[in-house]
Write a structure and sequence with these properties.
The chain is an alpha/beta fold. Helices cover 48% and strands 11% of the residues. The protein has 2 domains: 11-179, Rossmann fold (3-Layer(aba) Sandwich), CATH 3.40.50; 183-385, Dehydroquinate synthase-like, alpha domain (Up-down Bundle), CATH 1.20.1090. It has helices at residues 22-25, 40-43, 46-54, 73-85, 97-109, 117-121, 185-203, 211-233, 238-251, 265-277, 281-295, 301-312, 319-336, 350-362, 376-385, and strands at 11-14, 31-36, 60-64, 90-95, 133-137, 149-154, 159-164, 172-175. The longest helix has 23 residues, at 211-233. The chain binds 5,6-dihydroxy-NADP (NZQ) and zinc ion.
Amino acid sequence: MKNFEFHNPTKIVFGADSVAKLAKLVPVDARVLILYGGASAEKTGTLAEVRAALAGAGRHVQEFGGIEPNPSYETLMRAIEQVRRDKLDFLLAVGGGSVIDGTKFVAAAALYDGEAWEIAEQGGANVHQALPFAAVLTLPATGSEMNSGGVVTKKATQAKLSFRNPLLYPRFSILDPAKTFTLPAKQVANGLVDAFVHTTEQYLTYPVNARVQDRFAEGLLQTLVEIAPQAVASPDDYETRANLMWTATLALNGLIGAGVPQDWATHMIGHELTALYDIDHARTLALVLPALLDVQREQKRGKLLQYGQRVWDISSGTDDERIDAAIAQTRAFFEGLGIPTRLSAYELGQDAVEAVLKQLEAHGMTALGEHRDIDLARSRRILEAAL
Ligand code: NZQ
Ligand code: ZN
Protein backbone atom coordinates (compact mmCIF):
# COMPACT_ATOMS: atom_id res chain seq x y z
CA MET A 1 0.00 0.00 0.00
CA LYS A 2 1.22 3.51 -0.74
CA ASN A 3 1.70 6.15 1.95
CA PHE A 4 -1.26 8.50 2.36
CA GLU A 5 -2.92 11.20 4.42
CA PHE A 6 -6.68 11.10 4.67
CA HIS A 7 -8.83 13.85 6.11
CA ASN A 8 -12.39 14.51 5.04
CA PRO A 9 -14.05 17.23 7.11
CA THR A 10 -17.47 17.26 5.39
CA LYS A 11 -20.37 16.44 7.68
CA ILE A 12 -23.03 14.33 5.96
CA VAL A 13 -26.65 14.76 7.01
CA PHE A 14 -28.44 11.87 5.33
CA GLY A 15 -32.08 10.92 5.10
CA ALA A 16 -35.69 11.88 4.47
CA ASP A 17 -36.79 15.37 5.52
CA SER A 18 -33.27 16.47 6.31
CA VAL A 19 -33.51 19.78 4.40
CA ALA A 20 -35.31 21.27 7.41
CA LYS A 21 -32.10 20.78 9.39
CA LEU A 22 -30.59 23.72 7.50
CA ALA A 23 -32.22 25.90 10.14
CA LYS A 24 -29.65 24.65 12.66
CA LEU A 25 -26.75 23.93 10.31
CA VAL A 26 -26.38 27.39 8.74
CA PRO A 27 -25.13 30.00 11.26
CA VAL A 28 -27.86 32.53 12.11
CA ASP A 29 -25.57 35.49 11.60
CA ALA A 30 -24.51 34.31 8.13
CA ARG A 31 -25.10 36.41 5.02
CA VAL A 32 -26.17 33.57 2.77
CA LEU A 33 -26.16 33.12 -0.99
CA ILE A 34 -28.24 30.18 -2.25
CA LEU A 35 -26.90 29.00 -5.61
CA TYR A 36 -28.91 26.79 -7.92
CA GLY A 37 -29.15 25.62 -11.51
CA GLY A 38 -31.93 25.98 -14.09
CA ALA A 39 -35.58 25.33 -13.38
CA SER A 40 -35.43 22.04 -11.48
CA ALA A 41 -34.84 23.25 -7.90
CA GLU A 42 -37.78 25.65 -8.13
CA LYS A 43 -40.07 23.20 -9.91
CA THR A 44 -39.45 20.32 -7.52
CA GLY A 45 -40.10 22.42 -4.43
CA THR A 46 -36.61 21.85 -3.00
CA LEU A 47 -35.80 25.54 -3.23
CA ALA A 48 -38.99 26.42 -1.35
CA GLU A 49 -38.02 24.00 1.42
CA VAL A 50 -34.55 25.52 1.60
CA ARG A 51 -35.96 29.06 1.78
CA ALA A 52 -38.39 28.02 4.53
CA ALA A 53 -35.64 26.35 6.58
CA LEU A 54 -33.42 29.44 6.40
CA ALA A 55 -36.16 32.00 7.06
CA GLY A 56 -37.24 33.37 10.37
CA ALA A 57 -33.92 33.53 12.18
CA GLY A 58 -33.03 37.00 10.94
CA ARG A 59 -30.55 35.65 8.39
CA HIS A 60 -29.77 37.75 5.35
CA VAL A 61 -30.44 35.48 2.34
CA GLN A 62 -29.92 36.13 -1.36
CA GLU A 63 -30.16 33.83 -4.38
CA PHE A 64 -28.26 33.20 -7.58
CA GLY A 65 -29.90 30.94 -10.18
CA GLY A 66 -28.91 29.84 -13.66
CA ILE A 67 -25.76 27.77 -13.08
CA GLU A 68 -25.77 25.52 -16.13
CA PRO A 69 -24.70 21.86 -16.43
CA ASN A 70 -20.90 21.97 -16.83
CA PRO A 71 -20.86 25.33 -15.04
CA SER A 72 -19.34 28.18 -16.97
CA TYR A 73 -16.79 30.65 -15.73
CA GLU A 74 -18.78 33.37 -17.46
CA THR A 75 -21.91 32.64 -15.37
CA LEU A 76 -19.97 32.10 -12.15
CA MET A 77 -18.27 35.50 -12.50
CA ARG A 78 -21.70 37.10 -12.02
CA ALA A 79 -22.18 35.18 -8.77
CA ILE A 80 -18.70 36.24 -7.64
CA GLU A 81 -19.62 39.88 -8.26
CA GLN A 82 -22.81 39.50 -6.22
CA VAL A 83 -20.92 37.90 -3.31
CA ARG A 84 -18.32 40.67 -3.28
CA ARG A 85 -20.78 43.52 -3.77
CA ASP A 86 -23.18 42.42 -1.03
CA LYS A 87 -20.53 41.04 1.33
CA LEU A 88 -22.10 37.58 1.45
CA ASP A 89 -20.18 35.13 3.60
CA PHE A 90 -21.84 31.70 3.37
CA LEU A 91 -22.70 29.86 0.15
CA LEU A 92 -25.35 27.16 -0.11
CA ALA A 93 -25.45 25.04 -3.27
CA VAL A 94 -28.79 23.43 -4.11
CA GLY A 95 -28.42 21.01 -7.01
CA GLY A 96 -26.16 18.45 -8.65
CA GLY A 97 -22.45 18.37 -9.33
CA SER A 98 -22.54 21.41 -11.57
CA VAL A 99 -24.07 23.68 -8.94
CA ILE A 100 -21.81 22.35 -6.19
CA ASP A 101 -18.68 22.68 -8.35
CA GLY A 102 -19.74 26.18 -9.37
CA THR A 103 -20.23 27.07 -5.72
CA LYS A 104 -16.72 25.81 -4.90
CA PHE A 105 -15.32 28.03 -7.61
CA VAL A 106 -17.25 31.05 -6.28
CA ALA A 107 -16.11 30.26 -2.72
CA ALA A 108 -12.48 30.36 -3.82
CA ALA A 109 -12.67 33.11 -6.43
CA ALA A 110 -14.59 35.60 -4.26
CA LEU A 111 -11.51 35.89 -2.03
CA TYR A 112 -8.90 35.56 -4.78
CA ASP A 113 -6.75 38.54 -5.80
CA GLY A 114 -6.33 38.37 -9.53
CA GLU A 115 -8.04 36.84 -12.54
CA ALA A 116 -10.35 34.11 -11.19
CA TRP A 117 -9.67 31.80 -14.15
CA GLU A 118 -6.12 31.37 -12.84
CA ILE A 119 -7.65 29.11 -10.18
CA ALA A 120 -8.72 26.66 -12.90
CA GLU A 121 -5.49 27.08 -14.82
CA GLN A 122 -3.46 26.18 -11.75
CA GLY A 123 -5.78 23.38 -10.69
CA GLY A 124 -6.62 25.12 -7.40
CA ALA A 125 -3.03 25.17 -6.09
CA ASN A 126 -3.22 28.97 -5.80
CA VAL A 127 -6.28 28.96 -3.50
CA HIS A 128 -5.25 30.19 -0.03
CA GLN A 129 -8.65 31.09 1.36
CA ALA A 130 -12.27 30.30 0.57
CA LEU A 131 -15.70 31.21 1.86
CA PRO A 132 -17.50 28.52 3.86
CA PHE A 133 -20.10 26.68 1.82
CA ALA A 134 -22.45 23.70 2.03
CA ALA A 135 -24.70 21.70 -0.27
CA VAL A 136 -28.16 20.25 -0.64
CA LEU A 137 -27.63 17.44 -3.15
CA THR A 138 -30.34 16.70 -5.73
CA LEU A 139 -28.43 14.40 -8.12
CA PRO A 140 -26.29 11.44 -6.99
CA ALA A 141 -23.31 11.18 -9.35
CA THR A 142 -20.21 13.28 -8.91
CA GLY A 143 -19.32 12.99 -5.23
CA SER A 144 -18.76 16.76 -5.22
CA GLU A 145 -20.90 16.89 -2.05
CA MET A 146 -18.07 15.26 -0.07
CA ASN A 147 -14.88 16.14 -1.89
CA SER A 148 -12.70 19.17 -2.50
CA GLY A 149 -12.66 19.21 -6.29
CA GLY A 150 -14.61 20.90 -9.03
CA VAL A 151 -14.68 21.36 -12.79
CA VAL A 152 -15.38 24.64 -14.61
CA THR A 153 -15.65 25.52 -18.26
CA LYS A 154 -14.57 28.71 -19.98
CA LYS A 155 -17.01 28.91 -22.83
CA ALA A 156 -14.92 31.44 -24.73
CA THR A 157 -12.09 28.94 -25.24
CA GLN A 158 -13.96 25.63 -24.74
CA ALA A 159 -11.60 24.79 -21.87
CA LYS A 160 -12.98 22.46 -19.18
CA LEU A 161 -10.50 22.35 -16.29
CA SER A 162 -10.53 20.78 -12.83
CA PHE A 163 -9.37 22.36 -9.60
CA ARG A 164 -8.91 20.95 -6.12
CA ASN A 165 -7.93 22.37 -2.76
CA PRO A 166 -8.38 21.20 0.85
CA LEU A 167 -10.23 24.48 1.56
CA LEU A 168 -12.96 23.38 -0.85
CA TYR A 169 -14.68 20.63 1.12
CA PRO A 170 -18.30 21.52 1.89
CA ARG A 171 -18.87 22.28 5.60
CA PHE A 172 -21.82 19.91 5.39
CA SER A 173 -23.98 18.27 2.75
CA ILE A 174 -27.61 17.31 3.03
CA LEU A 175 -28.42 14.06 1.24
CA ASP A 176 -32.15 13.37 1.09
CA PRO A 177 -32.76 10.50 -1.35
CA ALA A 178 -36.35 11.70 -1.88
CA LYS A 179 -34.93 14.82 -3.52
CA THR A 180 -33.84 12.62 -6.44
CA PHE A 181 -37.35 11.30 -7.27
CA THR A 182 -37.86 14.04 -9.86
CA LEU A 183 -34.72 13.24 -11.85
CA PRO A 184 -35.20 12.29 -15.50
CA ALA A 185 -34.18 8.64 -16.13
CA LYS A 186 -31.29 9.89 -18.26
CA GLN A 187 -29.73 11.71 -15.32
CA VAL A 188 -30.09 8.65 -13.07
CA ALA A 189 -28.31 6.53 -15.69
CA ASN A 190 -25.62 9.21 -15.98
CA GLY A 191 -25.17 9.18 -12.21
CA LEU A 192 -24.76 5.40 -12.10
CA VAL A 193 -22.09 5.54 -14.81
CA ASP A 194 -20.24 8.50 -13.28
CA ALA A 195 -20.03 6.78 -9.88
CA PHE A 196 -18.97 3.53 -11.58
CA VAL A 197 -16.14 5.24 -13.44
CA HIS A 198 -15.02 7.21 -10.35
CA THR A 199 -14.56 3.83 -8.73
CA THR A 200 -12.69 2.25 -11.65
CA GLU A 201 -10.37 5.29 -11.90
CA GLN A 202 -9.14 4.45 -8.40
CA TYR A 203 -9.32 0.66 -8.65
CA LEU A 204 -8.50 -0.52 -12.18
CA THR A 205 -4.82 0.38 -12.07
CA TYR A 206 -2.21 -2.06 -10.71
CA PRO A 207 -2.19 -4.11 -7.52
CA VAL A 208 -0.52 -2.60 -4.43
CA ASN A 209 -1.93 -5.07 -1.92
CA ALA A 210 -4.50 -2.52 -0.69
CA ARG A 211 -6.99 -5.16 0.25
CA VAL A 212 -9.73 -3.19 1.92
CA GLN A 213 -9.64 -0.39 -0.70
CA ASP A 214 -10.07 -3.09 -3.36
CA ARG A 215 -12.95 -4.73 -1.50
CA PHE A 216 -14.64 -1.37 -0.90
CA ALA A 217 -14.29 -0.49 -4.59
CA GLU A 218 -15.64 -3.87 -5.67
CA GLY A 219 -18.55 -3.42 -3.24
CA LEU A 220 -19.39 -0.05 -4.75
CA LEU A 221 -19.22 -1.43 -8.30
CA GLN A 222 -21.37 -4.43 -7.44
CA THR A 223 -23.90 -2.25 -5.66
CA LEU A 224 -24.20 0.03 -8.68
CA VAL A 225 -24.72 -2.94 -11.01
CA GLU A 226 -27.25 -4.46 -8.61
CA ILE A 227 -29.40 -1.35 -8.08
CA ALA A 228 -29.15 0.06 -11.61
CA PRO A 229 -32.34 -1.42 -13.11
CA GLN A 230 -34.50 -0.45 -10.14
CA ALA A 231 -32.88 2.98 -9.79
CA VAL A 232 -33.86 3.83 -13.36
CA ALA A 233 -37.25 2.10 -13.50
CA SER A 234 -38.69 3.17 -10.12
CA PRO A 235 -38.08 6.87 -9.53
CA ASP A 236 -39.77 6.95 -6.13
CA ASP A 237 -38.19 3.85 -4.62
CA TYR A 238 -36.62 5.52 -1.58
CA GLU A 239 -34.41 2.60 -0.52
CA THR A 240 -32.88 2.19 -3.96
CA ARG A 241 -32.26 5.91 -4.27
CA ALA A 242 -30.73 5.94 -0.77
CA ASN A 243 -28.29 3.23 -1.83
CA LEU A 244 -27.48 5.05 -5.05
CA MET A 245 -26.89 8.33 -3.23
CA TRP A 246 -24.53 6.97 -0.61
CA THR A 247 -22.68 4.77 -3.12
CA ALA A 248 -22.04 7.74 -5.41
CA THR A 249 -20.76 9.79 -2.47
CA LEU A 250 -18.42 7.03 -1.28
CA ALA A 251 -17.08 6.55 -4.79
CA LEU A 252 -15.33 9.91 -4.70
CA ASN A 253 -14.86 11.11 -1.13
CA GLY A 254 -11.23 10.01 -0.91
CA LEU A 255 -11.75 6.78 1.00
CA ILE A 256 -11.24 4.21 -1.77
CA GLY A 257 -8.47 6.31 -3.33
CA ALA A 258 -6.30 6.44 -0.21
CA GLY A 259 -3.07 4.48 -0.55
CA VAL A 260 -3.67 3.30 -4.12
CA PRO A 261 -2.56 4.44 -7.58
CA GLN A 262 -5.12 6.47 -9.52
CA ASP A 263 -5.77 6.73 -13.23
CA TRP A 264 -8.21 9.59 -14.23
CA ALA A 265 -7.29 9.44 -17.93
CA THR A 266 -10.88 8.55 -18.82
CA HIS A 267 -12.03 11.73 -17.08
CA MET A 268 -9.41 13.97 -18.67
CA ILE A 269 -10.22 12.73 -22.19
CA GLY A 270 -13.93 12.85 -21.38
CA HIS A 271 -13.74 16.49 -20.27
CA GLU A 272 -12.46 17.45 -23.72
CA LEU A 273 -15.41 15.64 -25.34
CA THR A 274 -17.84 17.58 -23.17
CA ALA A 275 -16.13 20.91 -23.85
CA LEU A 276 -16.09 20.34 -27.62
CA TYR A 277 -19.37 18.51 -28.24
CA ASP A 278 -21.48 19.20 -25.15
CA ILE A 279 -21.90 15.48 -24.39
CA ASP A 280 -23.01 14.90 -20.76
CA HIS A 281 -20.06 14.17 -18.46
CA ALA A 282 -20.98 10.56 -17.65
CA ARG A 283 -21.68 9.81 -21.31
CA THR A 284 -18.15 10.81 -22.25
CA LEU A 285 -16.81 8.36 -19.66
CA ALA A 286 -18.81 5.52 -21.20
CA LEU A 287 -17.21 6.35 -24.55
CA VAL A 288 -13.66 6.36 -23.25
CA LEU A 289 -13.44 3.70 -20.52
CA PRO A 290 -14.02 0.46 -22.49
CA ALA A 291 -11.59 1.63 -25.19
CA LEU A 292 -9.02 2.69 -22.61
CA LEU A 293 -9.20 -0.64 -20.76
CA ASP A 294 -8.55 -2.43 -24.03
CA VAL A 295 -5.59 -0.25 -25.02
CA GLN A 296 -4.10 -0.38 -21.48
CA ARG A 297 -4.76 -4.07 -20.94
CA GLU A 298 -1.11 -4.97 -20.36
CA GLN A 299 -0.53 -2.28 -17.72
CA LYS A 300 -3.85 -3.13 -16.03
CA ARG A 301 -3.70 -6.91 -16.48
CA GLY A 302 -3.66 -7.92 -12.80
CA LYS A 303 -6.50 -5.64 -11.80
CA LEU A 304 -8.57 -6.39 -14.90
CA LEU A 305 -8.47 -10.09 -14.05
CA GLN A 306 -9.43 -9.35 -10.43
CA TYR A 307 -12.23 -7.03 -11.59
CA GLY A 308 -13.57 -9.67 -13.99
CA GLN A 309 -13.56 -12.33 -11.32
CA ARG A 310 -14.89 -10.39 -8.36
CA VAL A 311 -17.30 -7.94 -9.98
CA TRP A 312 -18.55 -9.96 -12.98
CA ASP A 313 -17.89 -13.51 -11.80
CA ILE A 314 -15.70 -14.33 -14.80
CA SER A 315 -13.63 -17.35 -13.84
CA SER A 316 -12.97 -19.35 -16.98
CA GLY A 317 -10.96 -18.88 -20.15
CA THR A 318 -7.45 -17.67 -20.80
CA ASP A 319 -6.33 -14.41 -19.20
CA ASP A 320 -6.97 -12.51 -22.40
CA GLU A 321 -10.40 -14.06 -22.83
CA ARG A 322 -11.28 -13.07 -19.28
CA ILE A 323 -10.12 -9.52 -19.86
CA ASP A 324 -12.13 -9.36 -23.08
CA ALA A 325 -15.16 -10.58 -21.16
CA ALA A 326 -14.68 -8.04 -18.35
CA ILE A 327 -14.46 -5.19 -20.87
CA ALA A 328 -17.51 -6.54 -22.72
CA GLN A 329 -19.49 -6.65 -19.45
CA THR A 330 -18.52 -3.07 -18.70
CA ARG A 331 -19.63 -1.96 -22.14
CA ALA A 332 -22.88 -3.93 -21.85
CA PHE A 333 -23.62 -2.35 -18.46
CA PHE A 334 -23.35 1.15 -19.93
CA GLU A 335 -25.25 0.28 -23.11
CA GLY A 336 -27.94 -1.41 -21.00
CA LEU A 337 -28.50 1.92 -19.30
CA GLY A 338 -29.07 3.51 -22.70
CA ILE A 339 -25.63 5.11 -22.69
CA PRO A 340 -23.65 4.63 -25.93
CA THR A 341 -20.03 3.47 -25.86
CA ARG A 342 -19.12 4.47 -29.41
CA LEU A 343 -18.38 7.94 -30.76
CA SER A 344 -20.36 7.04 -33.88
CA ALA A 345 -23.54 7.16 -31.74
CA TYR A 346 -22.97 10.93 -31.58
CA GLU A 347 -22.03 11.04 -35.26
CA LEU A 348 -18.44 11.75 -34.34
CA GLY A 349 -15.58 10.33 -36.37
CA GLN A 350 -11.91 10.87 -37.17
CA ASP A 351 -12.32 14.67 -37.13
CA ALA A 352 -13.38 14.48 -33.50
CA VAL A 353 -10.36 12.34 -32.66
CA GLU A 354 -8.08 15.02 -34.10
CA ALA A 355 -9.94 17.83 -32.32
CA VAL A 356 -9.80 16.09 -28.93
CA LEU A 357 -6.08 15.40 -29.35
CA LYS A 358 -5.45 19.06 -30.10
CA GLN A 359 -7.29 20.10 -26.95
CA LEU A 360 -5.46 17.52 -24.83
CA GLU A 361 -2.19 18.94 -26.07
CA ALA A 362 -3.30 22.53 -25.43
CA HIS A 363 -4.22 21.61 -21.85
CA GLY A 364 -1.00 19.74 -21.13
CA MET A 365 -2.81 16.38 -20.91
CA THR A 366 0.08 14.50 -22.49
CA ALA A 367 1.10 12.10 -19.70
CA LEU A 368 -2.11 10.62 -18.29
CA GLY A 369 -2.96 7.48 -16.35
CA GLU A 370 -1.50 5.74 -13.31
CA HIS A 371 1.82 5.24 -15.12
CA ARG A 372 1.72 8.64 -16.87
CA ASP A 373 2.19 6.64 -20.07
CA ILE A 374 -0.90 7.83 -21.92
CA ASP A 375 0.72 10.33 -24.25
CA LEU A 376 -0.99 11.78 -27.28
CA ALA A 377 -0.20 8.70 -29.40
CA ARG A 378 -1.85 6.47 -26.77
CA SER A 379 -4.83 8.83 -26.45
CA ARG A 380 -5.18 8.57 -30.22
CA ARG A 381 -5.34 4.78 -29.99
CA ILE A 382 -7.95 5.02 -27.25
CA LEU A 383 -10.12 7.47 -29.17
CA GLU A 384 -9.79 5.46 -32.37
CA ALA A 385 -10.80 2.33 -30.47
CA ALA A 386 -13.95 4.22 -29.40
CA LEU A 387 -15.02 5.13 -32.95
O1 NZQ B 1 -30.21 22.89 -14.05
P1 NZQ B 1 -31.38 22.24 -13.45
O2 NZQ B 1 -32.69 22.73 -13.95
O3 NZQ B 1 -31.31 22.23 -11.95
O4 NZQ B 1 -31.38 20.69 -13.92
C1 NZQ B 1 -30.34 19.80 -13.65
C2 NZQ B 1 -29.43 19.60 -14.85
O5 NZQ B 1 -30.08 19.92 -16.05
C3 NZQ B 1 -30.95 18.43 -13.46
N1 NZQ B 1 -31.31 18.11 -12.08
C4 NZQ B 1 -30.51 18.10 -10.98
N2 NZQ B 1 -31.20 17.66 -9.92
C5 NZQ B 1 -32.47 17.40 -10.34
C6 NZQ B 1 -32.55 17.68 -11.71
N3 NZQ B 1 -33.69 17.52 -12.42
C7 NZQ B 1 -34.75 17.06 -11.76
N4 NZQ B 1 -34.74 16.73 -10.44
C8 NZQ B 1 -33.62 16.88 -9.69
N5 NZQ B 1 -33.61 16.51 -8.40
O6 NZQ B 1 -29.93 17.53 -13.87
C9 NZQ B 1 -29.16 18.12 -14.90
C10 NZQ B 1 -27.69 17.78 -14.71
O7 NZQ B 1 -27.19 18.37 -13.53
P2 NZQ B 1 -25.61 18.47 -13.25
O8 NZQ B 1 -25.43 19.09 -11.94
O9 NZQ B 1 -24.95 19.07 -14.43
O10 NZQ B 1 -25.19 16.92 -13.24
P3 NZQ B 1 -24.06 16.17 -12.45
O11 NZQ B 1 -24.38 16.06 -11.01
O12 NZQ B 1 -23.84 14.95 -13.22
O13 NZQ B 1 -22.78 17.13 -12.55
C11 NZQ B 1 -21.96 17.16 -13.69
C12 NZQ B 1 -20.80 18.11 -13.49
O14 NZQ B 1 -19.96 17.67 -12.42
C13 NZQ B 1 -18.60 17.57 -12.88
C14 NZQ B 1 -18.78 17.25 -14.34
O15 NZQ B 1 -17.61 17.47 -15.08
C15 NZQ B 1 -19.91 18.17 -14.72
O16 NZQ B 1 -19.44 19.47 -14.95
N6 NZQ B 1 -17.86 16.59 -12.07
C16 NZQ B 1 -17.50 16.95 -10.82
C17 NZQ B 1 -16.73 16.14 -10.00
C18 NZQ B 1 -16.32 16.56 -8.65
N7 NZQ B 1 -16.62 17.76 -8.22
O17 NZQ B 1 -15.69 15.80 -7.94
C19 NZQ B 1 -16.25 14.84 -10.46
C20 NZQ B 1 -16.94 14.35 -11.69
O18 NZQ B 1 -16.07 13.45 -12.31
C21 NZQ B 1 -17.34 15.39 -12.66
O19 NZQ B 1 -16.26 15.73 -13.50
ZN1 ZN C 1 -16.99 11.92 -13.15
